[in-house]
């Protein structure tokens, strides 16, 4: 098969291309508008209603014509505040919100995503990553 | 788009709320309005910062000034000085305990972050069903580097130098295990990933597999190259359907990209992974039992030696590592063994993932460097005890571990310290208990589990644990005698010394550690017939206070067994011989006249 990665250099090229593509995705069409949302969808999140939150976000943002990408991700670790989502507005740092049911999701769209106002219930990032250690 | 220039983040975590953070937020809001800043400054209540020891915490954004131990009275000064005049309020800044200087600028803002995510680096960050996101985060680079630039021996040296130890509980040096399996001569060898996570309340491995399955696959391939195996098996319990689904997707994607299969990275090295399902028996987390289960035999352990490294799956040399152990491997190759061994403590390098559960405010999945204290985990990251109750004990290591108490709170978490204090690291379950938990009942709970999960092969575990359970049952029913305490201890010690496998050898730990740390609680049960925590129903007595009882007769009417007597408008009386301790009377009494003793 031709799409197999045959050596380390190919992998590095692919990585850089993918990194770029992920960035490009942010900068596509209308970079000043595109919003990225990650929904924590591990077993615990799903059990607390993350699936409903995710479908609501997708439908609602689509209906309201907000240019956004909603993806799933694994456990963020904040089990006490499930469902949790991370919202990255263009040019801003990611912000994590906890206890996001559909009501909270509507508030986040209305206030944070559309107006840039923060809403109560932000979870501060409480950990270091391997990138800054 | 009207945007605020400033955000004031007030911690709304349970710990900070208990010290009036809501009033602080309200006061700041008022002061902001009074200074005509309402259009420029937004006050927000956040979740827990994980720095509860110094709470309530207030953070100013965008300059990231971090104020600690703020009181409602500080609100006006914070607004006037910081927001109006742009001057920091020095007395509320965090003072670094080592340098005794106030920390104010954002460069040093990481001091309160007690967590470091290595094994969880991609969890909650990438889409686990999309290999491209993993590759963009340096995924499979470690495998590529190892295959192109390292001999198997040299790669094993790196793992050895990192000091990584098995995260499944025992803490055996991973590099050494790989070396032993490499040295065994055979035509076929196997790499096994132990994903049979069985401790009650533990979900670290599940979260890693659900959030970052590729990291485990990558590490298994590296391991296969090092020990000379071309087959990998993941033993996972069937009750983890989402983890299984994501693993299957990951395996397919890895094959498509050529990270699994033949001639990986053009190196001539072949490796592929298949999934084996377990039925969820606790003993199958023990490596010999796990191997038998995979062979289709009964999940029973066998005596070691021979170790799986010599004679494992299908009689071939087999290297068994836990999910979290594997998840650390790619980072060790990307960042270097020195980088890894500098984190944590000299004897236990790196980090450990814990599933923090029980009576803490911030139940969650956390990862901290080894050597972090229990106090930091429970009171900072965990946000302290629920409902402001008093901390009593923390159980680590699951059914094989023990209970640690107040006096152990400042101990650094590492393999040796936990064992020296009667508990163990285990796979990473951490259950916090408060003053309402009866330690005899807790020991009984774990014994319940062990009796249920014992495979029955050896008599110390099969019969001994059953007997231990009976003794504990007797004590919680108020029928214990003083001699039972020494019986418990003797029996527990014998089981520890004679059981066949790790399950049996460690099963008395919950009993021994509670006996050691809470002797007075056991004594209260057997000597005074009392349960200090008020949990053992058989030992409770419902009593009516004749001074408070007005004789309304409500209690005697709700009592299902007619244990309450008394005539109208005179104090009633509960006959404890008849009472079944259902508590219905206490619930109904409007005068608070009924109490439990």
TrEMBL record, chain A:
InterPro entries from the xrefs? Thioredoxin-like_sf
The protein's name is NAD(P)-dependent iron-only hydrogenase iron-sulfur protein
Automatic annotation (TrEMBL), chain B:
Entries under SMART domains matching the protein: NADH_4Fe-4S
Q: Which terms in the Gene Ontology molecular function aspect does this entry carry?
A: 4 iron, 4 sulfur cluster binding; FMN binding; metal ion binding; NADH dehydrogenase (ubiquinone) activity
Q: Does the keyword Iron apply?
A: yes
Keywords assigned by UniProt, alphabetized: 4Fe-4S, Iron, Iron-sulfur, Metal-binding
- Which CDD domains would you find in this protein's record? TRX_Fd_family
> Pfam families annotated for this entry?
2Fe-2S_thioredx, Complex1_51K, Fer4_10, NADH_4Fe-4S
Q: Where does the 4Fe-4S ferredoxin-type domain lie?
A: 540-569, 570-597
Q: Which family does it belong to?
A: Belongs to the complex I 51 kDa subunit family.
What is this protein's name? NAD(P)-dependent iron-only hydrogenase diaphorase component flavoprotein
């Amino acid at each position: 098969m031709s799409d197999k990665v045959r050596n380390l250099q190919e992998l590095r090229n692919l990585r850089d291309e993918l990194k770029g593509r992920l960035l490009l995705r942010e900068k596509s069409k209308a970079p000043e508008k595109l919003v990225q949302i990650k929904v924590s969808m591990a077993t615990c999140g799903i059990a607390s209603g993350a699936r409903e939150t995710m479908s609501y976000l997708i439908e609602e943002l689509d209906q309201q014509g907000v240019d956004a990408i909603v993806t799933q991700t694994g456990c963020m670790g904040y089990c006490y505040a499930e469902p949790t989502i991370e919202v990255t507005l263009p040019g801003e740092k990611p912000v994590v919100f906890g206890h996001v049911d559909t009501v909270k999701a509507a508030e986040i769209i209305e206030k944070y995503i559309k107006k840039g106002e923060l809403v109560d219930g932000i979870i501060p990032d409480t950990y270091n990553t391997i990138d800054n250690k | 788009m009207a945007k605020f220039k400033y955000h004031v983040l007030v911690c709304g975590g349970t710990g900070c709320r208990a010290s009036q953070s809501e009033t602080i937020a309200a006061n700041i809001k008022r002061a902001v309005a009074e200074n005509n800043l309402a259009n420029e400054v937004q006050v927000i209540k956040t979740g827990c910062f994980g720095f509860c020891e110094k709470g309530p915490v207030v953070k100013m954004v965008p300059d990231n000034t971090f104020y600690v131990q703020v009181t409602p009275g500080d609100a006006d000064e914070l607004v006037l000085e910081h927001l109006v005049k742009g001057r920091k309020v020095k007395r509320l800044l965090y003072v670094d305990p080592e340098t005794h200087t106030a920390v104010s600028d954002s460069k040093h803002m990481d001091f309160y972050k007690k967590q470091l995510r290595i094994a969880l680096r991609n969890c909650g960050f990438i889409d686990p069903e999309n290999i491209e996101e993993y590759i963009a985060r340096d995924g499979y680079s470690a495998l590529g580097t190892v295959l192109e630039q390292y001999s198997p021996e040299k790669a094993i040296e790196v793992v050895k130098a990192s000091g990584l130890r098995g995260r499944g509980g025992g803490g055996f040096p991973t590099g050494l295990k790989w070396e032993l399996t490499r040295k065994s001569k055979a035509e076929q060898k196997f790499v096994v990933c132990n994903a049979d996570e069985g401790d009650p309340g533990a979900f670290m491995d599940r979260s890693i597999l659900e959030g970052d399955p590729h990291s485990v696959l990558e590490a298994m391939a590296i391991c296969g190259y090092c020990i000379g195996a071309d087959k990998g098996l993941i033993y996972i319990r069937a009750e983890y359907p989402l983890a299984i689904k994501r693993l299957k997707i990951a395996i397919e994607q890895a094959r498509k990209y050529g990270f699994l299969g033949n001639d990986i990275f053009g190196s001539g090295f072949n490796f592929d992974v298949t999934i084996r399902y377990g039925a969820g028996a606790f003993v199958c987390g023990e490596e010999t039992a796990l191997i038998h289960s995979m062979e289709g035999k009964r999940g029973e352990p066998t005596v070691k030696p021979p170790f799986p490294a010599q004679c494992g799956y299908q009689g071939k040399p087999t290297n068994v590592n836990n999910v979290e152990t594997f998840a650390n491997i790619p980072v060790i190759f990307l960042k270097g063994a020195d980088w890894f061994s500098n984190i944590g403590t000299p004897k236990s390098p790196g980090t450990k993932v814990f599933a923090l559960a029980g009576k803490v405010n911030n139940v969650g999945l956390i990862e901290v460097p080894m050597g972090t204290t229990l106090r930091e985990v429970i009171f900072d990251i965990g946000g302290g005890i629920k409902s402001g109750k008093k901390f009593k004990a923390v159980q680590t290591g699951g059914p094989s571990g023990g209970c640690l108490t107040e006096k152990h709170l400042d101990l650094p978490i590492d393999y040796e310290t936990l064992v020296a204090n009667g508990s163990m690291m285990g796979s990473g379950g951490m259950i916090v208990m408060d003053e309402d938990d009866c330690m005899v009942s807790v020991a009984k709970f774990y014994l319940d589990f062990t009796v249920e999960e014992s495979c029955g092969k050896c008599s110390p575990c099969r019969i001994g644990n059953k007997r231990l359970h009976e003794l504990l049952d007797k004590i919680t029913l108020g029928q214990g005698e003083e001699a039972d305490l020494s019986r418990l201890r003797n029996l527990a010690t014998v089981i520890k010394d004679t059981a066949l496998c790790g399950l049996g050898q460690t099963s008395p730990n919950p009993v021994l550690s509670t006996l050691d740390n809470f002797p007075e609680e056991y004594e209260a049960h057997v000597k005074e017939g009392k349960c200090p925590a008020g949990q053992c129903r058989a030992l409770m007595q419902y009593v009516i206070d004749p001074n408070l009882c007005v004789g309304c007769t409500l209690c005697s009417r709700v009592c299902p067994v007619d244990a309450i007597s008394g005539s109208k408008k005179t104090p009633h009386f509960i006959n404890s011989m008849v009472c079944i301790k259902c508590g219905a009377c206490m619930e109904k009494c409007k005068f608070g006249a009924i109490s439990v003793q």
